Amino acid sequence: MTTGLPMTVADPSLPARVRIHEVGARDGLQNEKTAVPTAVKAEFVRRLAAAGLDTVEATSFVHPKWVPQLADAEELFPLVRDLPVRLPVLVPNERGLDRALALGAREIAVFASATESFAKANLNRTVDEALALFAPTVTRAIEAGLKVRGYLSMCFGDPWEGAVPIEQVVRVTKALAEMGCDELSLGDTIGVATPGHVQALLTALNEAGVPTSRIAVHFHDTYGQALSNTLAALRHGVTTVDASAGGLGGCPYAKSATGNLATEDLVWMLDGLGIETGVDLAALTATSGWMAEQLGRPSPSRTVRALSHKE
Amino acid sequence: MTTGLPMTVADPSLPARVRIHEVGARDGLQNEKTAVPTAVKAEFVRRLAAAGLDTVEATSFVHPKWVPQLADAEELFPLVRDLPVRLPVLVPNERGLDRALALGAREIAVFASATESFAKANLNRTVDEALALFAPTVTRAIEAGLKVRGYLSMCFGDPWEGAVPIEQVVRVTKALAEMGCDELSLGDTIGVATPGHVQALLTALNEAGVPTSRIAVHFHDTYGQALSNTLAALRHGVTTVDASAGGLGGCPYAKSATGNLATEDLVWMLDGLGIETGVDLAALTATSGWMAEQLGRPSPSRTVRALSHKE
C-alpha cells in the first residue's frame, strides 16, 4: 500500500463510527466448496478478531445435512469462544439453540425470508410459517439473556419474483422486530439493490416504527453495487454493516460467484471517510490472503487483490 | 437478467440524466495486452454506439511507439467517423492534432498530470512543461471548431507521491480550463479515492471558479471504490461520468489489473436510480461479452459476469 492512502477526508453527514459485522467465517465459508479443517476455521476467526473486528459471526448450528461445510460447529466454537469479541452463531430452531447454549454462545442469529419463493426454497415453508417456527427460539434465547439478530433475505430482489415490494419487506422486518430481535440485517441476497431503493426501504422501515439504530445492511456485490448501497445506508444513519473478509462466499442462488461485500473494500472506504471501525486494513488483508491460500483460489476482493499484488 | 431488475427508485437529489463518456475502445484497449484487429475495434465502436452510448472515445493519435495498441488510428477512424455519436480522439500534441483533423475528427482530448512524478513518468516533463506543450494544440483545436476535453491523471493519489493535495489538483484543473478545455475529466488513475475526498475536490474546484457542469469524473475500480465515488460525484451534481465497457483496461501503474469503472456496473446503478443514460444494458452487456471473447479473457465487470452467467 502506498503510504498515506486512502487520504482521509471526512463527510460530517455520515456516522463517526461503524460496527462491521464480519460474516466470512460463517456466511462466507458455508458457501465455499472447499472443505476447511476446523483448526483453520478457528485460526481464521482468531485472525479476524486480531485484525480489530469486534463482531465475528463464528459458525452455524443449522443441521449438518443442510450446511455440511459448518458441520463442525460443536468442535469449532469452544476453540474461539474465549476471544474478546462478539461471536454470534446462526441458529435455525430450538434444537440449534440448545446446541448453541450448551456451548456457551452469547449471541445468536435467526434467518427469515422477505419473499414466499425463497422461504419455500430455503425453508420449505411460507414466510409466516417460518416466522412461527423460530418465534419460540427467539423467545427462549432472549429469556436466556442472549442477543438475537434477525437476518432477512431477498429484501430487494428475488430470483423467482423479481423486484420485491417494499411493504412486503417492512411487514416481515416488523414481525422480526416485534418477536424480539434486537438487530435486523437486511439482506440483498442477489445483489440487485441500488441506492434509491436502499433509502426508500430504510425510510419505510422508520415510518413503520423500526428505528435505524436497530438496522444492519447486508449487501452482495453480484452487480458491483454493494459499496455504493452501503454509502446510501450510511447517509441514512445506518451504523452496522455486514461484510465478509476477502469477499468470501458466493450466493447459491446467483451463480456468478461474487457474493458478499468484501470487508477490505468496505474498510478502504470507511478509512478514507475517517469513519472509525477499529480494523487494521493491512492485518485484515493479510488474513484474507492467508485464507485464500487455504481455499486455493484468489480473493474476489478488489482491495485484497490490489494490496496483495504490491507486496 | 430477472425481469424488472433493478427496481427503479429515484433519488430526487440526484441528476435526472447522466452522459456516459465511454472510454473502452481507447483507454480500455490501449491497456490490453492482446492485439485487436482494426475491424474488430471498429465493430466494437459500432456496437457501443448501437447500445445507446452517445459518446464513444474512438482511438488515440499518440505516437505508435508509446501506444502500439492504437497504432492503427488512421485506418480505424474512417471506419467509424460517420456514426451518429460523439467520437472524441486522444491527441498529445500538434502533430497528433494534424492527424486527427486530416481524418475529420470533431472532438479531441488532451491529457495532463496532477503530479510531478506522473508527468515525469508519462511525459518526461514537469507538469507546467506538459501544459505548455499542448497549449498550442488546444488553441488550434478550438480555432478549428473542435470540442476539447482535458484529462487530468492522479487527481486523488499517486503511486510515488501518495495522497495528492487538493490545491495541486485545483491548480492544474484551472490551467486546463483557462487554456480552453470545455470539459475536465478528473482521473483517479490508481483508484484510491473515497467519497469525502471526491466531494472535497469538487467543492474546491467550484470555489476556484470551475463549475460542476464542466467536470467529468473518471474513477478506477482498483480498490472497489469507483461506483461509490461516482455516487458521491452525482450527489454533487456531476452529470458526465467516464466508464469502460466491460471494465476494459487496467492501469499500467497499478498492476492488479482492475482498471476503469465498468460501464455496465454504472448503468445498473443509474437504471436503478431512474437516471436516464440512453443505454440499453442488455445490448451493452452482450457487446462486452463479445469483446471479452475477442480478447480471450473474462470481463472484470461484475454485472457482465452476473448477467452472462445466467444466459
UniProtKB/TrEMBL annotation, chains A, B:
PANTHER family reported for this sequence: HYDROXYMETHYLGLUTARYL-COA LYASE
Gene3D superfamilies noted in UniProt: Aldolase class I (3.20.20.70)
Organism, scientific name: Streptomyces gardneri
Protein's name according to its UniProt entry: Hydroxymethylglutaryl-CoA lyase
Similarity annotation: Belongs to the HMG-CoA lyase family.
A Pfam family annotated for this UniProt entry: HMGL-like
MF terms (GO), sorted A to Z: hydroxymethylglutaryl-CoA lyase activity; metal ion binding
Transmembrane portions of the chain: none
